[in-house]
Fold each of these.
Amino acid sequence: MKILTILGARPQFIKAGSVSREIAKHKEIKEIIVHTGQHYDANMSDIFFKEMQIPKPEYFLGIGGKSHGAMTGQMIEKIEEVALEVKPDWIMVYGDTNSTLAGAIVASKLHIKLAHVEAGLRSFNMKMPEEINRILTDRVSNILFCPTDIAVQNLKNEGFENFTCKIVKSGDVMQDGAIFYKNLAVKPVCDIKDDFILCTIHRAENTDDETRLKSIFEALSEIAKERQIILPLHPRTKKIVEDLKLNTQNLTLLDPVGYLEMVWLIDNCSLVMTDSGGVQKEAYFFEKPCITLRDETEWLELVECGVNTLAGADKEKIVEAYKSNLKFKIIYPQKLDLYGSCASEKIIIELLSYE
Ligand code: UD1
Ligand code: UDP
């Protein structure tokens, strides 16, 4: 069986890394990786391939730093060329980025079976590029690997049971990675206080909205008077923060870190503040409370069980959420089995038995 895996952005390297490790156990499967180039800086891309020993991409398309239309369009054109050459049995896509959508469109037009890992997630916010990408990708997928019960239910609500596709609750592949790499975590080289807060901000809904971004940074400045905030900055955020001359004086800014350092930061912090999808879950895997700097989340189960607070981009709400987190000790309901286990293994078993 030949699988053509389409990757492009940081979270996809991490998700696909776990599945690639599983594929490597099967001699009957050949994985061919296409890197679209959506993320291209060494610390947004190469580092993950090195650290996580993800197989080297056979195709590198070099399409990054463009508008959504140009990026997605050029990716479709190039991925189609690769797919026609490789003739895979499956095209495999992850998450909700422009690279995901491009891979999905190529597969569906060439009648190549499409597997979508992290299917069924919804924010119900159609202004988010990710929401558009995931809805369109889900609709043309042959197998939808859902990380959670809510994701399965979302697909059912949208009538997916009436379509010719298979819905599988695989569990979450990011959990496989978090468990595997926990013992390999590396402490970043910088001054780190004991009860530091880890923060990440990169989503367009925050970075591309001056009011929201300013408000978030005002809240961070306020909180940083009491606790160290370590903020590995995504390049798009770094650029906008510099352009807007936002006050970052009392924050510990880092360049984006590799996954092994990120795992160390999550495992050792006292609180996570983020607008990232993946980091919200990782906070839970490492039993850290999370304040989500968005108005909605695809990971509703975390909010429902009380470990994740949705604070949006409102300064007062963010500071209030921080203060509440100091007051209450959160009990982690691991027994609820929110994200399953061995998702990567389940995904490969499903693909091998697909009729
Ligand atoms: C993308 C995904 C988002 C995901 C995120 C993970 C889409 C629509 N968005 O957002 O869902 O959460 O990746 O990190 O696909 N840049 C660099 N170097 C890099 C990568 C990006 O400088 O290695 C800068 C460029 O100026 C680029 C901008 O960041 O134009 C945005 O990059 P892009 O890939 O368009 O979106 P992300 O914000 O990374
Ligand atoms: N991550 C990382 N280094 C960083 C920031 C994030 O390794 O400096 C990891 C993080 O631990 C998670 C993944 O990148 O596994 C999430 O990616 P990101 O936040 O870019 O995207 P999202 O999950 O929001 O799509």
Note: The mean pLDDT is 96.
Amino acid sequence: MRKIKVGILVSGRGSNMEAIIENSKKGNIDAEVAIVLSDNPDAPALEKAKKSGVEAMYIYPGEKKTYMTPDREEEYVRVLKEKGVELVCLAGFMRVLKKTFIQAFYGKIMNIHPSLLPSFPGLNAQKQAWDYGVKVSGCTVHFVDEGVDTGPIILQRCVPVLEDDTPETLAHRILKEEHKIYSEAIQLFAEGRLKVEGRRVRILPGK
Ligand code: GAR
């Protein structure tokens, strides 16, 4: 099967990015990581990507802390389009995307979030869940719209909260599941099996 070209946006550690790169290299997914972009020049993810032979660069995101102005979004879009990117994966990218970016890749942007959305959107989702005292949390891959963690849900995986968990141990167990479901969602997209109907993402049967 043809491999789709994926662009990954990162701000920090990049473990989800690494899992996607590894799965693409092993041929576990019909995807090739064409470019990694970061809004943080010191993101460890940039070095990790380069070490595995994937082009990676920092692009100045502008002065705003939580989002980018249209001109900055245009620059990200320009580079992604130049690389022929067909699917954008946010992997720990800590900025909200606005209209310019979303319209350029409408229906072709995914995000991973470390909770069972719509519970605990935003920052420190694992700690939010632990503080609240839920017995089950997990992770979500969803399409990105202009809200914060609000787009149609593609896949979710449950992770139990154990008696002796701390926010850190819970986050660690959730992360292991994140690494699996992100690649699963990318593969479903590559196979053309995701159909968005309003809030619902239908997963079409495989061939
Ligand atoms: C992951 O847990 C991801 O779900 C989370 O940031 C972490 C990035 O780790 N994303 C969000 O909270 C987005 N709202 P990584 O850089 O090792 O992939």
Note: Strands lie at 4-10, 31-38, 56-58, 87-90, 109-113, 136-143, 153-160, 194-197, 200-203.
